[in-house]
TrEMBL record:
GO terms for molecular function: hydrolase activity, acting on ester bonds. Keywords: Hydrolase, Plasmid. Pfam families: Lipase_GDSL_2. This is Hydrolase. Residues 6-197 form the SGNH hydrolase-type esterase domain. The keyword Hydrolase applies. It comes from the Bacteria. SUPFAM superfamilies: SGNH hydrolase. It comes from Pararhizobium polonicum.
């Protein structure tokens, strides 16, 4: 049995576009479960999505628990040994309150990669495989969220390249979610049920393509 940790924000949690913070797609509709189903027997998916989660920033409004780095260590140790960590974060780092360019959001992702390798929570105390997933770009119309994310739309289109450069430099896997799905026009930055399906099935192909041998 191989274990995959899916570490993300509201688009891993499965928040319904245009809905309230607790309006969530059913477990079988969310991309981590679709990934597990597509991979088939022998794979265990740990779904770890939190709405509002950042890479490395304490949120002065929503709370320090939204800092992905604060929770990652406990999460890794709770579920070890882990064969693969999939990180899909970055959208919340683009909020006005953080004032970060895409390059620094990518650096935050890089910090999480370094933390994972510092713990070596893979089988037999080795490093797990790591995959950075760039979230799909935000739409221009983000409804009532414009004040919170003002200017984030343009930055979001630059995340994939920044993340790919970071992934290459750290020699980890990379996938651009925007290549297979898009955010919903219901609010402009969450993915809908069909996008969850598209992302989960595409990531299954990426996971298989890593090449696992017999170990």
């Amino acid at each position: 049995m191989r274990t995959v940790l899916c570490f993300g924000d509201s688009n891993t949690y499965g928040q319904v576009p245009g809905g309230g913070p607790l309006e969530r797609y059913n477990v079988e509709q969310r991309w981590p479960r679709i990934l597990e189903t597509a991979l088939g027997a022998g794979w265990h998916i740990v779904e770890e999505g939190l709405s509002g989660r950042t890479t490395v920033h304490d949120d002065p409004i929503e709370g320090s628990h939204k800092n992905g780095r604060r929770y990652l260590t406990a999460c890794l140790q709770s579920h070890a040994p882990i064969d693969l960590v999939i990180i899909m974060l970055g959208t919340n780092d683009l909020k006005v309150r953080f004032n970060k360019p895409p390059s620094e959001v990518a650096m935050g992702i890089g910090c999480l990669v370094h933390d994972i390798r510092g713990l070596s929570p893979g089988p037999a105390g080795h490093d797990p495989e790591i995959m950075i997933v760039a979230p799909p770009p935000m739409l221009d119309d983000i409804k009532e969220w414009e004040a919170i994310f003002s200017g984030a739309q343009e930055k979001s289109h630059k995340l994939a390249l920044a993340f790919e450069v970071m992934a290459d430099s750290l020699e980890v896997h990379f996938f651009d979610a925007g290549s297979v799905c898009a955010c919903s026009p219901a609010d402009g930055f969450h993915i809908d049920q069909e996008a969850h399906r598209q992302l989960g099935e595409a990531l299954a192909q990426e996971v298989v393509a890593i090449g696992w041998g017999n170990g």
